[in-house]
Design goal:
The structure is a homodimer. The first copy, chain A, is α/β, with parallel strands linked by helices. Chain A is built from 14 helices and 18 strands. Chain A folds into three domains: about 150 residues, 3-Layer(aba) Sandwich (Rossmann fold); about 160 residues, Dihydrodipicolinate Reductase, domain 2 (2-Layer Sandwich); about 80 residues, 2-Layer Sandwich (Alpha-Beta Plaits), CATH 3.30.70.260.
Chain lengths: ~425, ~425
């Protein structure tokens, strides 16, 4: 078959944009042979022409992103500039001009997803965003297409590579949080201001997008309860390991059939060593989808980086190109308003490390607090540490509200010198 | 939106067929709300009406599969009867009648895939087969769509749950092959005649389908070199573990850029304990796709069973229904004739266990054979066993032809009492 030419306008030429342009050039003839689509990089909008003139032709380069989304010779737009407001405006413009859009912009989709999906549906063209969640891992397409009929119960994901790298170093090498973070920064996995990663904000944006697709409702980043990993110590991880668990920062979204409520949260959690997430190491990402019929599925790979992200964008670009020429497009349907489950209504088993004074009566005082809040203890361990002692409690299933009340009261006890990072146990 | 009714004709009502019919009934209204497609089970062809009359309405049941594929009130056909010749005829008939087909028939796709794909393309409708490879795992769709532009180097898969269960029991419990097989049979993971699983034939059919899609060429089951797990002992697995490896039966397909040749094979292999396939336990399946841009991706889940397989079929049915109403269809394009790499041209590192007489000069005699065939030894270990000794050799990278010649000569040595199962090392 003769290949149909599709001219791509790329907005942004940073790590991901440049990797995408390279990949298209390298793969264009193979793609034309297999898919019948001849991809051409028609325009690339950059901030500074001089910085890119060695890698891109002069007639391709522009500093005017508006020009790219309005250019009638551009068939399809790839948005890899990042940021929210300007990107939103450009994408809406491209869609209203009849150009399908492929974006890697997680923050944008996690904030204005529903508006953008509706604009694409109205225009009858594609807005695809595989690259916005977990970089190179094909996850959004399987969720929105392969699992469209699957009754999904829960999605659990290691969706932030930086924190998984830090936790891996702390677990395998016994590194402190500070040293592991420094090592992540040295390798380029963490930014100099690591807040968005280590406080779980990046993960929150991703799990909100996943929840929206898994449960067909409009969850935004701001709906997600988030706790980061800054309170987790190497000692906590070592104790969890001894009890047969791995510590992971997880994005979790669950559907409660009885109430119809959706819980969406990010927090440190522990999974059994035999759970498939336990062996996901270093900066890799992995997402487990628990379906009623499918059972547990896991999607694993590189969640960031120029080449993996470009690979996801390219898959979407080919799909959107084929759809454009067929007059077809993918749709998520109408996303309903979610009934969000407040964090205080969730329940699970908990692992709580405490540092306490090493004197008679301490265990009695501490366990009294658990008892008053009806939090039942499944196991307790004690270690000597210098002048004090470390106590670790593993509870039976308990409500979050009760557990938080228990922690507040523990903090007030004279004999408790430090309350460690709370770890929620992921049930199988 | 008003839902469009799609009437499904199901051929076969065994474990998978019955699970699919149940899942459609359970999910139909949710699917209609989210996808705009109202699925109806219109016909189910069975062998014996009496055996199914309690679970299906009389006007749905028929013993005439031809009637189902010719019935003008049937919009789409699901083939879950199995077998090759009759299923092929029925699918071709359904396609020529303009009915999209979803099939779980691995043996059929691995034999007549190219013919059936071409028939679907000619009819301009879908032939989808997610369920034919690794049951409930979304793998075919990500491969054919998300990774359409990705330069794939290699695909490695644990694609047979029975053998992975057996190897897990041998590895974790030290069970013998015979005991582990008996346990698999008791749990219903293995058939009373386990040949197709333990000799790698089931895996060969699956990896041939994967190779066809990954590399866009027509590989059939008969093209695949296969070795099973019957020669592997618990002692071999224990030694591999001591050296930092897990033993897995893998389907492997690789593209050699230099020669343009595709290698497709099934054999016991060892992977580093940190490789994501190493922690895939029991009857789970997992497939690792190594792409140049994407890096390593893994797709993990249940490779068999009624409900997981039905889940994959349902995803395909919804997709084919939407496409049918749009007049669109998915295509693999034209599959080229593959240039197959003969097994003897492959190369890797090898782990070879030998049982030898425990007397002076044995090691000298044995290593002499390796030397004569230019197979260089990276490590050797010795264990006493009763009257003899067990030697284990780990080689440097060597050609398959040289390694096989080496093994033939070792078998002829008086001092070698037994040559164990050859394990090929998977490079990272």
């Amino acid at each position: 078959m003769a290949a149909i030419q599709v001219r791509i306008g790329v907005i942004g030429h940073g790590t991901v944009g440049a990797a995408f342009v390279r990949l298209v050039k390298q793969q264009a003839s193979a793609i034309a042979a297999r898919s019948g689509v001849q991809l051409v990089i028609a325009r690339v909008a950059v901030r500074n022409i001089d910085a890119h003139k060695n890698s891109l032709a002069a007639d391709v380069l522009t500093t005017d992103a508006e020009f790219v989304v309005n250019d009638p010779t551009v068939d399809l737009v790839v948005e890899v500039m990042g940021g929210i407001d300007q990107a939103r405006g450009l994408i809406l413009k491209a869609l209203s001009n009849g150009k399908p859009v492929v974006t890697a912009n997680k923050a944008l989709i996690a904030t204005h997803g529903a508006e953008l999906f509706a604009a694409a549906d109205n225009a009858g063209i594609d807005l695809l965003f595989e690259a916005a969640v977990c970089g190179g891992i094909p996850l959004i397409r399987p969720l929105r297409e392969s699992l469209r009929g699957e009754p999904i119960r829960r999605v659990l994901g290691i969706v932030n590579g930086t924190t998984n790298y830090i936790l891996t170093k702390m677990s395998e090498d016994g590194a402190s949080y500070e040293d592991a973070l420094a090592s992540a920064q040295q390798l380029g996995y963490a930014e100099s201001d690591p807040t968005a990663d280590v406080e779980g904000l990046d993960a929150a944006a991703k799990i909100s997008i996943i929840a929206s697709i898994a449960f067909g409702c409009n969850v935004v980043a701001g709906d997600v309860y988030s706790e980061g990993i800054t309170k987790i110590t190497a000692a906590d991880i070592a104790i969890a390991k001894r009890l047969g668990y791995a510590v992971k920062l997880l994005g979790v979204t669950e559907f409660d059939k009885a109430s119809g409520a959706v819980s969406v949260r990010v927090h440190p959690a522990i999974v059994s060593m035999q759970h498939p997430l336990a062996s996901v190491r270093e900066a890799f990402n992995a997402v487990v989808v628990d379906g009623e019929a499918s059972g547990s599925l896991m999607f694993y790979g590189r969640g960031a980086g120029g080449d993996p992200t470009a690979s996801s964008i390219l898959g979407d670009v080919i799909d959107a190109s084929i759809n454009l020429n067929k007059g077809a497009h993918a749709t998520l349907g109408v996303l309903s308003a979610p009934k969000l489950q407040p964090m205080s209504d969730t329940s699970c088993e908990y692992l709580l490390p405490l540092e306490v004074a090493d004197k008679p009566g301490v265990l009695h005082a501490v366990t009294g607090v658990f008892a008053r809040h009806n939090v039942s203890i499944r196991a307790a361990e004690q270690d000597g540490i210098g002048h004090g002692a470390r106590l670790v409690f593993l509870t039976h299933n308990a409500g979050e509200a009760a557990m938080q009340a228990c922690i507040s009261e523990l903090k007030k006890l004279d004999v408790v010198t430090h309350v460690g990072g709370l770890l929620r146990v992921i049930a199988d």
